[in-house]
Amino acid sequence: MHKLVVLYSKPADPDHFRDYYVTNHLPLVMNWPGLLAWRYSFDVAATKGEAPYFAVFEGDFADAAAMAAARASPQGQRVAADVANYATGGAVIVHYPVQDGTG
């Protein structure tokens, strides 16, 4: 599995961010080809001090190629272009192959 994580810094208008994200952005995300699962939260907390991020998104893809294809697709381009409509604080995007742990 390959994970895409988006970390959003605090926006100028947190209420607008929340409303726009749920009403407009997530419906675009749901149309991403190859997206196996996704989750998000506005309740980002730090174990110590103030959290450096306001919100987080996680998307799961079969592999890096599936994620790259999704991001390059017309739907992925719409998702990327839409970020400017709500993420006034900016966003950090990271991705990585997931390693299963044993315990």
TrEMBL record:
Coiled coil: none annotated. Gene3D superfamilies: 3.30.70.100. Residues 11-88 form the EthD domain. GO terms for molecular function: oxidoreductase activity. Signal peptide: none annotated. InterPro entries: Dimeric_a/b-barrel, EthD_dom. It holds the Pfam family EthD. PANTHER family: BLR8190 PROTEIN. This is Ethyl tert-butyl ether degradation protein EthD.
